[in-house]
Amino acid sequence: MRQPPGESDMAVSDALLPSFST
Q1: Looking at the record, which segments are called Disordered (predicted)?
Q2: What pTM did the predictor assign?
């Protein structure tokens, strides 16, 4: 369930996968 980059999604992605931080 990959959702488009958002403010909340961005924070969650960075927290779960800091490696994906672009």
Answers
A1: 1-22
A2: 0.18
Assigned token pair, 11: 């924070």
pLDDT digits (tens, 9 = 90+) for 1-22: 566 665 556 666 666 666 655 5
Scored b (16 or more CB within 10 A) or e, 3-17 reads: eeeeeeeeeebeeee
Q: Which two tokens stand for residue 4?
A: 């488009």
**Which pairs count as long-range contacts for 16-22, CB under 8 Å and 24+ apart, including other chains?**
none
What ranges in the chain are assigned the alpha helix state H?
7-16
